[in-house]
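PROTOCOL LOG
Step 1. Enter all chains and additional molecules of the complex.
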Amino acid sequence: GENVEQHPSTLSVQEGDSAVIKCTYSDSASNYFPWYKQELGKGPQLIIDIRSNVGEKKDQRIAVTLNKTAKHFSLHITETQPEDSAVYFCAANRNSGGSNYKLTFGKGTLLTVNP
Amino acid sequence: ETGVTQTPRHLVMGMTNKKSLKCEQHLGHNAMYWYKQSAKKPLELMFVYSLEERVENNSVPSRFSPECPNSSHLFLHLHTLQPEDSALYLCASSPARLNNEQFFGPGTRLTVL
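Step 2. Run joint prediction.
Step 3. Record the structure below.
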């Protein structure tokens, strides 16, 4: 089955700096890679996703890059703000028709943005 | 807050109790999920329902019993739980079989005494 590794487990940055979180996956057939943000006391919220037919996707201050050859993908947050502080999860999935429901998650990264 | 709601938000129960968690999605999605979230572990998928049919059951102990009466509602019935079952239980939904964008509810924080 799929295995997703996420690093680092904790990340502390100064407000205004950039933050990068990296994930690797094992199943070369995986083709959908979402990122979730989980604030304290809330469920995970989808913030950005990428499919394997593109290498990069941006949405304002956040971007995701995908390297299919190396089987890794990264979340980039620029101009970080204190409200970006949360736990971030990456995930991978193979949308291939059959049993395509399973999102395999990384263990999460606790991001702290210091004012 | 998303279009997925969960009740109760917090639950404390003894090992001999029977309780149920409820999830409702207002997004018109066709698939619903139960996840378990424990500290320092990745989210664990427990059950998946698609159009009210269970399509995945990840070797979850029988003391957890899911029910999906329609595509908008999902329940998790609990009985004779163990302290190690204490965790955040998350419900999610996704639009369709080939679209796996999952939207999560806020979760139920369960404590088993």
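Step 4. Note key features.
Chain B touches chain A through 28 residues (CB under 8 Å).
Residues 28 and 97 of chain B are 13 Å apart (CA to CA).
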